[in-house]
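Closing statement on the cytidine-5'-monophosphate sub-project.
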Amino acid sequence: MEQAQQKRIVLGITGGIAAYKAAELARLLVKQGITVQVAMTEAATHFITPATMQALTGHPVLINQWQDDKGMAHIQSSRVADAIVIAPATADFIAKLAHGLADDLLSTMCLARDCPLLVAPAMNKEMWSNAATQRNVQQLIADGVTMLGPVNGLQACGEEGMGRMLEAEELAQCIVATFQPKLLAGQKILITAGPTYEAIDAVRGITNRSSGKMGYAIAQAAQEMGAKVTLVSGPTALARPLGAQMMNVSSAAEMFAAVKQHVDDTDIFIGVAAVADYRVAQPCTQKIKKNGGNLTLELTPNPDILAYVAALPDAPFCVGFAAESENLHEYAEQKRRAKKLPLLAANLAQQAIGADDNELILFDDAGEHRLPRADKLTLARTLLRHAATLYQKGKS
Ligand code: C5P
């Protein structure tokens, strides 16, 4: 999260039931090193207390424009902010923003700001679809405001429909993303992630302990940097990264087919998947019955997807991964040369697989670059900054 560190946001809370989610949002943002100054409308204080928000952010909450001696909170707070985020934003507050009204502290801060404004609407589906709200939202978009959601779902009133606020975790992701440098703007990135599953029979198979976390983190980081991401994933328990085009596959053969389908339209290919080196030569379509004796499985090699892509005549910029259990440096550099990769990220398998954090060593033509232990999203961002630099150099 190093890019988000030292950033300051004003979190504006307006009076809707989704205000309770603002507490979790504030907590997540603070956890990522962001300074959060909360500003609430008077109506919002009926849904969540300023004391809760102050405790979570460590800063007194701004509510009333007359509460500071000089009456300049709206200018001071919006000047030091890197962004103002309104979550939840009611239909009424969106209407105020669209018309440039400034009749309380939060709306005045929005009008006086010189930083980006992000708005997360939350309201009943009829209020959302009302022509006036839709007109106001269009006006905000035309004014350069970023709309975060809403989404379809169950509403506090018991109805179901459009107008539900994004979850705190999704909002935090979007907010942090706005602070990332757009080094991959418009680039098409194809990523493989997770394990593969090679069937033995109708119910059994060979797989590995890859969780997919690193590949999914790279997909998220690439999108934050402005890339258009296609993620080809083996079976994992992870949520689909917001905004990525997702292809769910099972075996290495399926992964290979999905990659072949997309690779022509790819600028950068990143092979993070732990692809099984072998598959069962003749998987049984029925469940194999035990007979008390030994069972011999014949294994046959799988195609090397990354080596195939890197050897294409018009190959995209290729990044490989190597998980080794010993001789990391030697094996990784050998692998990079054998597969003719401009960049390879290596890690110790026993430390990396399934873990939330990791250490990486990047190998490229200039040598080795050590990325110290960090969570996988932080590592993904650093890796992609490195890859983007090499990719741009290669093109110029
Ligand atoms: O040779 P090794 O399997 O260690 O290489 C690892 C790298 O190659 C990873 O980037 C992995 O995604 C990729 N790979 C592949 N297809 C295979 C085996 C590995 O794309 N069959």
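The radius of gyration is 25 Å. With this model delivered, the sub-project is considered complete and its resources will be redirected to Aim 3.
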